[in-house]
């Protein structure tokens, strides 16, 4: 077994006569089970396997005793190693980043259907750094198979601070023909371990899959329109992530008393090309749906391809909506692109156009986003972020050439305390759902204060 200080990881090879469908290796660190990782067959050596496992973060040089055990419990390697603190290229400590971000990123943007087998692929950071601790839960009668801990080398660079991020690959296969009649194979939950660090103790995350082919229809094929909303998006992933966002919002609205059948007046603030709006239009037929955005080209696309009402917004309020125009508002990844002044101006405007007692669901980027960006951050930036709780220094070029002010659109990170302070004059903060959208956007559930 060898130790790599650059990744704070141990790796090794061993031979085994045991036969398991998904062989694994369990790593003990200082006498405590740390993580269970895949044992990969070595093609040129029948019966031989390789493994690699990043260890838990340390803030100073530490000597650890590491033991690797085969899936039947048999030790295959042991080593005493002097570990070095993991840092990024600018000197930021992984332990400092992990002290603030406990919510493992997940994304399931791709689905394929072959016969009656539905395959969902994506990524999920290992809870507590341990690929062996992720599980999913369906309702009764669903036939499925989960392959997890698959190689994801790109994640090692992006999520440099998260142990075993390079083992985040996920393939979920649902055998629809084998599912019981009346079961629900289109809704499941990620379930996390009980401990309260690195994703342990996190509330279950619901995932919804489109139930009909119709939900996949009618999305832009122009990559420019798509990427202004989600940079890595294509028409297929926009359909899937948009549908899951719709279901997440609908569930949060229901908890807050906003029901589809009551015919609410609903605003999608920052609707883009309508990847979420379209599902509300289809699934909430009694509601009065409006989408609004500063991106005039995407609004034109919505007007030409979707039902409902769509308006172009100015960069700064006021809008032309009358007072108390809406019963409910949602805004996904809008505050995440605004300066502090623009946030305060638009929160006041949203309060004006939302009826007293109305509900707003707004996302913002907090600790998880600061961690996501930490690959490019130095210790000084991290200290400033922890002290201020707000950063809008980075420009976002996504709308370059599409809006009049090239300095307007930002990549904004803010603490929950900063968000509360800005909302407090206008809204009662009912709850914050951490990492509810995109894995690194928290969602605030707000109720308009009554004058």
Q: What does it look like?
A:
- With 451 residues, the chain is an alpha+beta fold.
- It has three domains: 2-86, Immunoglobulin-like, CATH 2.60.40; 106-208, Immunoglobulin-like (Sandwich); 213-448, Rossmann fold, CATH 3.40.50.150.
- The chain has ten helices and 24 strands.
- The longest helix is centred in the middle third of the chain and has 21 residues, at 235-255.
- The protein starts with a strand and ends with a strand.
- The mean pLDDT is 93.
Précis, in short:
The protein has 451 residues and is of the alpha+beta class.
Features:
about 20% helix; 3 domains; alpha+beta; Rossmann fold; Immunoglobulin-like; single chain; 10 helices; about 450 residues
Helix and strand topology:
Layout: E1 2-4, E2 9-15, E3 24-29, E4 32-38, E5 40-41, E6 48-54, E7 62-70, E8 75-83, H1 94-98, E9 106-114, E10 117-124, E11 135-137, E12 144-150, H2 153-158, E13 169-175, E14 187-191, E15 205-208, H3 223-227, H4 235-255, E16 265-269, H5 277-283, E17 288-293, H6 296-305, E18 309-312, E19 326-331, H7 340-353, E20 354-364, H8 367-372, H9 379-388, E21 390-395, E22 410-414, H10 416-423, E23 427-437, E24 441-448
């Amino acid at each position: 077994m060898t130790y790599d200080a650059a990744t704070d990881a141990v790796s090794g090879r061993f031979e085994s006569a045991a036969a398991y469908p998904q062989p694994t290796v369990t790593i003990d660190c200082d006498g405590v089970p740390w993580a269970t990782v895949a044992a990969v067959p070595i093609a040129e050596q029948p019966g031989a396997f390789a493994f690699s496992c990043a260890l838990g973060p340390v803030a100073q040089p530490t000597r650890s005793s590491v033991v690797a055990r085969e899936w039947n419990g048999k030790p295959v390697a042991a080593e005493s190693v002097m570990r070095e603190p993991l840092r990024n290229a600018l000197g930021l400590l992984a332990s400092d980043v992990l002290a603030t971000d406990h919510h493992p990123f997940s994304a399931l943007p791709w689905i394929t259907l072959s016969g009656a087998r539905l395959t969902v692929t994506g990524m999920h950071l290992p809870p507590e750094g341990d690929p062996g601790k992720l599980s999913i839960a369906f309702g009764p009668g669903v036939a499925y198979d989960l392959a997890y801990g698959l190689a994801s080398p790109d994640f090692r660079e992006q999520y440099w601070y998260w142990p075993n991020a390079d083992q985040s690959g996920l393939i979920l296969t649902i055998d629809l023909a084998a599912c019981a009649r009346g079961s629900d194979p289109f809704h499941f939950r990620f379930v996390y371990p009980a401990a309260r660090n690195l994703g342990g103790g996190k509330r279950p995350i619901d995932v919804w899959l489109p139930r009909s082919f119709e939900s996949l229809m009618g999305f832009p094929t122009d990559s420019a329109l798509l990427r202004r909303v989600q940079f890595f998006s294509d028409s297929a992933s926009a359909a899937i992530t948009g549908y899951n966002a719709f279901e997440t919002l609908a569930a949060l609205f229901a908890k807050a008393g906003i029901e589809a059948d009551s015919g609410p007046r609903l605003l999608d603030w920052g609707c883009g090309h309508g990847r979420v709006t379209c599902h509300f239009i289809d699934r909430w037929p009694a509601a009065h749906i409006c989408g609004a955005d500063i991106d005039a080209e995407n609004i034109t696309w919505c007007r030409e391809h979707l039902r409902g009402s769509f308006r172009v917004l100015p960069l700064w309020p006021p809008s032309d909506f009358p007072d108390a125009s809406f019963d409910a508002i949602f805004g996904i990844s809008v505050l995440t692109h605004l300066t502090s002044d623009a946030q305060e101006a638009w929160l006041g405007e949203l309060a004006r156009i939302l009826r007293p007692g109305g509900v707003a669901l707004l996302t913002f980027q907090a600790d998880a986003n600061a961690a996501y960006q930490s690959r490019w951050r130095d210790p000084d930036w991290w200290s400033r972020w922890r002290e201020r709780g707000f950063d809008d220094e980075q420009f976002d070029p996504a709308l370059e050439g599409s809006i009049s002010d090239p300095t307007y659109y930002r990549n904004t990170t803010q603490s929950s305390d900063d968000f509360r302070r800005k909302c407090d004059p206008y809204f009662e903060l009912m709850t914050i759902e951490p990492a509810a959208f995109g894995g690194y956007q928290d969602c605030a559930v707000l109720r308009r204060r009554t004058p």
